Amino acid sequence: QKEVEQNSGPLSVPEGAIASLNCTYSDRGSQSFFWYRQYSGKSPELIMSIYSNGDKEDGRFTAQLNKASQYVSLLIRDSQPSDSATYLCAVNPLNFNKFYFGSGTKLNVKP
Amino acid sequence: KAGVTQTPRYLIKTRGQQVTLSCSPISGHRSVSWYQQTPGQGLQFLFEYFSETQRNKGNFPGRFSGRQFSNSRSEMNVSTLELGDSALYLCASSTGTAGGTEAFFGQGTRLTVV
After folding, report:
1. Is B112 helix (H, G, I), strand (E, B) or coil?
2. Nearest-by-Cβ selection for A43 from B31, B102, B105
3. Does A9 have pLDDT greater than 90?
4. Which of A2-16, A19-33, B12-26, B42-56 ranks highest by mean pLDDT?
5. Are B98 and A96 an interchain contact pair (Cβ–Cβ within 8 Å)?
6. Helices (H), ranges, A11-103
7. Which chain B positions have a beta carbon within 8 Å of A31's beta carbon?
8. Which of B45, B105, B107 minimises the CB distance to A98?
9. Is residue A95 pLDDT above 70, yes or no?
10. Which residue would you say has higher pLDDT here, B98 or B10?
11. Which residue in A has a C-alpha nearest to residue B56's C-alpha?
12. Helices (H), strands (E): how many in chain A?
């Protein structure tokens, strides 16, 4: 079993719709959770971090965490073609700065 | 505020050679982590350095090594290169304090082994 699981996609949504990206993790002791966006040929860019159960909103992005279900999600509202990228879920267990990454979900936003 | 700087951006090496990659973290950040990214395996953790000490290590062979200097700059070395070492090598910079702080990636070094 992988430490972090993501659906590889591609996930296709029309412009203006809500994109929902999901991630599950295996280490129940994990404390920190992150979403990165990676454009083709570029390095990952941090877009959200979440540490507590519930929702965290930042502009068009909302991260949701449910530690009991070991589940993290990212909602992108009013999706734009520029949001088309691969979204990586990262989990940090209790160990310092050793992140486990999912394989990423490719998002396509169609104009 | 300057970001994470990795050099060189691109490298082409032949099998059996060795290579050294460099990473300068964000000013004030003491932790540097290294990752290998390939299409088949995704992002895999290599090791993390904090205050010149290796604090964490992933499951890579001993051909992969690193070090960190007193100014927090880090280098990664790969000896006896194999074709399978072709990948994007990324370093991530963070404060390194407890609790899983946010990590910021450099632009990466794309290594091609021929």
Report:
1. strand
2. B105
3. no
4. B12-26
5. yes
6. none
7. 99-100
8. B45
9. no
10. B10
11. A98
12. 0, 11
